[in-house]
Design brief:
By secondary structure, the chain is mainly beta. The strands form 19 sheets. Strands 39-38-37-40-41-43-42 form a seven-stranded mixed β-sheet, with helices on both faces. A hairpin with a 2-residue loop joins strand 22 and strand 23. Helix 1 crosses helix 2. 49% of the residues are buried.
Length: 1029
């Protein structure tokens, strides 16, 4: 397909007149040319430095700039634009737009929003246009910063956590591009939630059109917009999240400018064919593209290589590097782990190369952070790349602006530097002041905040302060803890004033978010996110209303979340009556010093499940058995922890509100409801581990001369704190053995282990083999041994279990004639009753017969032994056992008092084999867990490893009742007749899938899920992708 891009800057004339020129938007103009007629006369001198409040908190880079790929590394950048005698910048960290005097660097005004301000401010006809994570676009008076109009781009009043900060579910992450009286911008970042492109009247803020079709598109064009829009005469081009302006896979998406339609059907005479360089890649003048220290021909056609014109790069041991491509969103390579993981380097605000008045200006980052984390700023001749002037600064300068007789450089550490010709008045460093105190009422609320901390011991995480009048309680909590706090006001004017006060104390956005809740509305914050909820008004005797209690109940975190209401003037009698009025269990009256409080710890969610083992549980069901999660779904949080590991890594485990994740050389525990990191435990990469109630069992490989010995030790760790308890100790008579496997019972109270040992010696030509194999059980809380079966000196030795469920261990044992006869008799009888046609070619000699034993989990007592028929279940088992995928292995599951024998296989990518009947022989065979008797066996025609959820075996694309084998049915949406239920993943769907009680999850282009309760089709969460395994 021949796709088109907005015009290159070949049409831009190089103006060399002496008049001043503005730089009103990112890269100068809506075409993002990076070209200006403003002419300076190098050499230049630094005339002032502006250090923002957040500059003192900006982290010092520790990675080389070419490899740094995480968005928070750019959060301290202050994107800039300039018009007349003003310089404007946005601050992501504290959510404000600021105007500086270009002559002195002094601040003229600031405007503070409810969340981060993103991208470069746009100046247009004496107004400033900016977008915020609070879901609004703001139009401000450029001279005063006063609000002219505000447009709500967010579709509903719903917020989420984005990289540990509260934001609207529909943040404005593009700039506001203004051209010909129309302002264009996007809202939303997650296609699953819906993403939108808007056009509004720049004068009034009135909506002209909105394109909302892309969020739900079943293709890659489902955009996650973030960055600066490119606006040409007839088209708008939208960059996407971390992929920026990368053209591969059609990552840039175009819309018609007049209507917002997609795909574009109008002809744009200035467009270039798909495959040419985008305008933001360096700067282009005529047929030459300048990339800082390199100049080459401008590539205008797909697959046509650029020809180098001149090259001034350091060739030997380079010390600096020009970043011209991170704005494109380029693949940076694989991780250091065995298989790897792709990450992208993207800075949506970068503008390191510009062309002004016939001179190239660009910045170059120091490469080795050990030698410095600054950059050079240079001016070059365009004809040969010779340096006209250069200077070194101590920060990474990622955006340059030439306007009105000056060169401005904004850096990734919250510092702006101004350069001008010699003789210009100098003003030194302007450091933005930070107030010691933001608001009043400090004396009253200092003691109340202290009491809250003493009573709850909540010092980290997220806090919600309701019913704010002054905001003093939120400020005191911020000063006494590490909490990230949201202060809720019902008075809009007070909310705005407090937001500004917090900003001047360097608290807004960094520590406290101020939210205005209009009367009669619900709080929009994500469910379960708050570790602590308190009320400012309650400390003065006004207790929360019934409506507030409803919000409190939804937002408070299960298990660890604490609500503490009262303190100050509140009496015990008033709190007691209030407790009763809440109609909630768990509120108690407590006293801390002179303060009386009502306290509640939210219990675990009803029907909540866990994922304690690699495949969900020790029954290998691939399901969490969670019934708390029900549709419709929306994103609660995204961001850290950021994991980069390959396909060999262990999956996460979840229990008691904690999520355990394998990382390089360790395991981290994170809060399930917010992603917040709680603890880290060092261990070798890809160590096996599982959760048994409130204890983590971890297999630690031992090494000798940096090589694994094959002998591992198991450790016990507390789930809550990550502290080591002890190691798993074997009895003296078995201590020479190795624990090869461990797992927990469904309730986590008992842990089972398998020990094996083998030694082969030679006496002459004869080999003498000594070995033992045994099973044991221990109490997970105390580590006390409960029972052992097999082992040293025992006549019968035991191999490990194949599944554990319903208080039983199911173990594979050697097959006897008795086992074989029992299995053949059962399968004949089953076929006779249910599938008589399968008896026509029934040949006992070609049946695959195995045997299993069931052990009682609490005692180790043998409950029964049974022969089992696994014909056509496992690889090469029977003459029709034909399979088409790699990684095909036997697979056993146990749940709902059954044992299920199935095939584990990689999914048939693209459904290539399934339509031809290639999987019809694939069998599911199910035995009763309590007796070992055959329940059913049938050719199930499935693609990949099944899962069990809520009494159903889901074997893609079908669902089978686990007790009877009957296929799940649904009402056909067109005919109204009963039909087989099915779910079919599409696109990239070669991975396995998993389940909870009410959902199926799997790879389908992105991360897909099927709502089993509503049964309304497959939803896909784009721009994330599950493993192929």
């Amino acid at each position: 397909m021949n796709r088109k891009l907005s015009p290159l800057v070949a049409l831009v004339c190089i103006v060399t007149t002496a008049h001043s020129e503005d730089w009103p938007t990112w890269r100068h103009d809506p075409l993002r040319s990076g070209v200006s007629g403003e002419k300076l006369a190098p050499p230049l001198e630094e005339v002032w430095v502006f250090r923002s409040r957040q500059a003192r908190d900006a982290p010092v880079p520790t990675q080389a700039p070419q490899s740094f790929a995480y968005p928070w590394g750019m959060h301290y950048t202050l994107p800039i634009s300039s018009a007349g005698d003003s310089l404007f910048f946005n601050s992501h960290i504290d959510g404000r737009t600021v105007c500086l005097d270009v002559a002195t660097g002094s601040k003229r005004w600031e405007f503070v929003a409810a969340a981060a301000m993103n991208r470069t401010p746009t100046y247009y006809e004496k107004r400033i246009y900016v977008g915020s994570d609070d879901g609004h676009v703001y139009c401000l008076d450029a001279g005063t910063g006063k609000l002219i109009w505000k447009f709500k781009a967010a579709q509903r009043n719903r917020w989420m956590l984005s990289y540990e900060k509260l934001t609207s579910a529909w943040p404005v992450r593009s700039d506001v591009a203004v051209d010909r009286g129309v302002a264009y911008f996007t809202a939303g970042i997650l296609p699953h939630e819906g993403t939108f492109l808007f056009a509004v009247d720049a004068e009034t803020g009135k909506l002209i059109w909105c394109n909302a079709s892309q969020g739900a598109a079943m293709r890659r064009e489902a955009i996650a917009p973030a960055g600066h829009l490119i606006v040409s005469g007839k088209t708008i081009w939208v960059p996407r999240d971390h992929l920026g302006y990368n053209q591969s896979h059609g990552m840039l998406v175009s819309f018609e400018r007049e209507t917002g339609n997609h795909p574009v059907k109008v002809e744009d005479p200035h467009a270039i064919p798909y495959g040419g360089d985008v305008p933001v890649f360096g700067v282009s003048i005529g047929d030459t593209r300048y990339l800082g220290d390199v100049a080459q021909t401008a590539r205008k056609e797909q697959n046509k290589p650029a020809v180098k014109i001149w090259d001034r790069r350091e060739t030997k041991d380079p010390t600096h590097w020009t970043d011209v491509d991170s704005v494109l969103g380029l693949r940076s390579g694989s991780s250091k782990y065995r298989v790897g993981g792709v990450h992208y380097r993207n800075d949506p605000d970068a503008c390191t190369v510009v062309f002004a008045g016939g001179i190239i200006y660009h910045s170059m980052f120091q490469i080795d952070p050990g030698k410095g984390v600054g950059s050079r700023i240079l001016a070059r001749r365009p004809e040969n790349g010779d340096i006209l002037w250069s200077t070194q600064i101590p920060e990474r300068a990622n955006q340059l602006v030439v306007a009105n007789g000056r060169l401005f450089a904004t850096t990734r550490r919250g510092v702006i530097r101004c350069f001008a010709p010699p003789g210009t008045a100098k003003h030194g460093t302007i450091t933005e002041r930070i107030n010691d105190v933001a608001v009043g009422d400090q004396e009253l609320f200092q003691s109340i905040a202290t009491s809250i901390v003493q009573q709850t011991d909540v010092r980290d995480g997220y806090a919600l302060v309701l019913d704010c009048e002054s905001g003093a309680l939120a400020e005191q909590l911020a000063r006494q803890t590490n909490l990230s706090i949201c202060a809720v006001f019902d008075d809009a004017a007070k909310a705005i004033a407090t937001r500004v006060s917090y900003a001047r104390a360097n608290l807004n956005g960094t520590r406290i978010t101020v939210f205005h809740q209009p009367p009669g509305t619900k709080l929009p914050f994500p469910s379960y996110y708050a570790d602590l909820i308190v009320s400012e008004a309650a400390a003065k005797g006004t207790l929360p209303t019934k409506k507030t209690i409803e919000d409190l109940s939804r937002i408070l975190k299960p298990i660890r979340g604490i609500a503490l209401i009262g303190g100050g003037k509140t009496t015990a009698d008033a709190l007691g009556r209030w407790n009763t009025a809440t109609q909630q269990q768990g509120w108690t009256i407590v006293k801390s010093g002179d303060a009386i409080w009502s306290r509640r710890v939210r219990p675990q969610l009803a029907q909540s499940g866990s994922w304690t083992h690699q495949l969900g549980d020790s029954g290998n069901t691939g399901s969490s058995d969670d019934g708390a999660l029900k549709g419709p779904l929306g994103v609660l949080w995204y961001g850290p922890p950021v994991l980069r590991y390959g396909n060999n890594s262990m999956p996460a485990r979840l229990a008691h509100g904690l999520m355990l994740l394998p990382v390089h050389n360790g395991i981290i525990a994170c809060d399930q409801y917010s992603g917040r990191k709680l603890w880290y435990y060092p261990c070798p990469e890809n160590s096996q581990f599982f959760i048994a109630d409130k204890t983590v069992y971890l297999r630690r490989e031992t090494f000798k001369d940096d090589r694994p010995t094959g002998k591992a030790l198991w450790e016990r760790i507390t789930l809550e704190t990550g502290k080591k308890i002890d190691g798993v100790v074997l009895p003296r008579m078995m201590e020479q053995g190795t624990i090869s496997q461990m797992a927990a019972s469904r309730d986590g109270k008992i842990v089972y282990g398998h020990v094996q040992w083998q030694k082969i010696t030679k006496q002459g030509d004869q080999e003498i083999r000594k070995d033992f194999r045994c099973l044991f059980a221990e109490d997970s809380a105390s580590g006390k041994r409960l029972w052992t079966i097999g082992g040293v000196g025992q006549e019968r030795q035991w191999d490990s279990w194949v599944a554990i469920s319903d208080g039983r261990l199911y173990c594979s044992i050697p097959v006897t004639d008795t086992h074989r006869e029992k299995a053949l008799t059962e399968i004949r009888a089953y076929f006779q009753q249910h599938s008589p046609e399968r008896l026509k070619d029934f040949d006992p000699s070609k049946r695959t017969i195995q045997a299993m034993a069931a052990l009682e989990g609490t005692t180790g007592r043998i409950l029964y032994e049974a022969g089992i028929d696994t014909t056509n279940v496992f690889l090469y088992s029977g003459r029709r056992g034909v399979h088409y995928n790699p990684s095909i292995i036997p697979f056993t599951m146990a749940s709902d008092n059954t044992v299920v024998f199935a095939t584990q296989s990689g999914a048939d990518k693209g459904w290539r084999q399934w339509p031809n009947g290639a999987y019809k022989p694939r069998t599911l065979t199910v035995y009763a867990g309590d007796t070992g008797k055959l329940l059913w066996s049938k050719h199930a025609d499935y693609r990949t490893r099944p899962v069990i959820a809520n009494g159903t075996i889901y074997a893609e694309p079908w669902g089978y009742d686990i007790q009877t084998g009957e296929r799940r049915q649904r009402t056909h949406p067109v005919t109204g007749q009963k039909a087989d239920w099915a779910w079919c993943r599409y696109g990239k769907q070669c991975g396995q899938f998993s389940a909870s009680r009410h959902f199926l999850f799997g790879r389908s282009t992105g991360v897909a899920y099927h709502d089993l309760l509503n049964d309304d089709g497959l939803y896909t969460f784009y721009h994330s992708r599950m493993s192929c395994l």
